[in-house]
Amino acid sequence: MKMQASWKSKRTPLEVIAALTDFARLSQQASALLASSLETPDSLGLKILTRLLSLCYADKGAFVLSFQGQDIGRLAVLTSLTDQLVFPLIVRYKMSGETATTALALFESDGLDIQVPATMPHILIWRRAISMQPMQPDGWDQSSEKLSQVACAYFVLDWSETEPKFLEQALLAEHDLLPLLADAIDAVIVNVLQALRVRDLEQLADHRAERNNELLKAELLATVSHELRSPLASIKGYTTTLLRHSQHISSEERHEFLIAIGSACNRLETIVNRLLEVSQLETKTVHFEPVSVNLIHLVQEALTSALPFTGDETTAVTSTDPHPVTYTLHIEQEYDSRTSNGLIIQGDRRLLRSLLDHLLENAMHYSPSGGNIEVGLRAIRHPNALADLELQLQQVKPTVAVLPATNYHGGPLAEIWIKDVGSGIAPEHLQSIFERFYRVDMSLVRNVNGLGLGLSICKSIVEMHDGTLWVESEPGNGSTFHVLLPL
To answer: Could you read off the pLDDT of 454-467 as tens digits, one per residue?
Structure first.
């Protein structure tokens, strides 16, 4: 028999060198696992096992990785090699899971690294302990055993088909051979472990992203439900009161109730319109009709609609607020240019007006009573002004720019800026405030109502006009939103 002849002579150095070369190649393939998906830890583990079986002339075997090296026998019996937290990699070649479990259950953890169980004399178990530096991301579950610094690899080699008279000779030969392969095997295992941990981190990141998406969906549902429920409750309450007690309600009270109902209806209409608007912008179904638009006239119109407008300054006059919010409009001139004739751009007038309405509403909501909201307009035509703008964008873009800058070297620009004196925005929120439904305060009980869609709509409108939008903000010192549009 071929197997008989192979045990009559020692393995040649060329065979050992060839095996070491193959394991070196496998180590390189294991390293590539970190950068590609051509191999998987399971397929690579099978290559390691079959190459070792071929070198040892073994009939079958198993390759098991464990992150709990102590008392492997008890763990094998308790888990039957099915717990991936304990055994992240299990590869078998012609060996049943029951045989592998039985063999590992007989391994003495405090014994030698190479053992032959007394009740299974045709099996050899080789243990390799690998020291690993933990790859621990922020927030990783501290109870996870995958962060153990020591991993153990177990190779279960089976010569059950070898004739008994050659079995002892075969096992003795492997006691001399396996230590020669230790370094090469360890290098492959280390790379496999790294690949396994990278895979675990990727799965953890996917799980966290999925969990965050679920939480976001729940928060959005709660927010939308709350925003719809509040005006509906007002409408229902006032309507029920009018229907049940109309005879006992004075005309003045009835008038107040009707005003409250009308206000709640307006709020509901605004919410529905916002949802429709953001849906159309996201699906690119919004009608875009560019015409010549005078920005000065458009801004003045938006301010007039927001509050009674007179000259360059507006004041919110309400009967309930003793310290109204004021608006101040600045029209700046650049060097020797004249802006009195207007800032004319090509754009959709309706969408640009919506952009201004959202920014003004946002500033008004977050400004304290008695605060002043500044609205500025300027043309940027001079080369020096364009250079100054480029420098400004380079300084703010890494932290607070939310859209990529347009090619502002190609032509003159118009800038609109709206500055409030509110509480400002914390740095960790600046990159997210233009996302749909994003609220700095996601709680339902808050001072400012809303769905968190206004700034997302602004972002989409600016993108449609090939513009740039960014924010400058500092907690406690208010926020300034800048819009750049090509003239």
So the answer is: 788 888 888 888 88
